[in-house]
Write a structure and sequence with these properties.
- The protein is built from 4 helices and no strands.
- It has a domain at 22-40 and 49-84.
- The two termini are 18 Å apart.
- The protein is mainly alpha-helical and 92 residues long.
- 63% of the residues lie in helices and 0% in strands.
- It has helices at 7-18, 22-41, 51-59, 68-84.
- It is globular, with a radius of gyration of 13 Å.
Length: 92
């Protein structure tokens, strides 16, 4: 990612799309960021994230009290925001 993410704008976008609790959204994003950082350390260049592994990782955190569908919905809304702003995309 070359552009920086406006965290508040991202949060508001996800809230608007999902109607999820902002605190739970922040937890999901925090755990996602930690997971991606770990993957980036062992990789060079573009990072290919398996969404199922990511969701399992987030659901395994004791402070996340959401369903698998809720976590997936939050991550999809985040990806929509990032793609809309030219900061991410799906790999073929």
């Amino acid at each position: 990612m070359t552009a920086s993410v406006n965290e508040q704008e991202l949060l508001q976008f996800i809230i608007g799309k999902t109607k999820a609790d902002p605190k739970q959204i922040e937890l999901v994003l925090k755990h996602e960021k930690a997971y991606i950082a770990k993957v980036e350390q062992s990789s060079k260049g573009a990072v290919d994230i398996d969404s199922d592994d990511l969701i399992d990782h987030i659901l395994g955190r004791p402070d996340v009290k959401l369903s698998e569908l809720a976590v997936d919905t939050i991550l999809e809304a985040e990806m929509e925001y990032l793609m809309k702003n030219g900061m991410a995309g799906y790999m073929d």
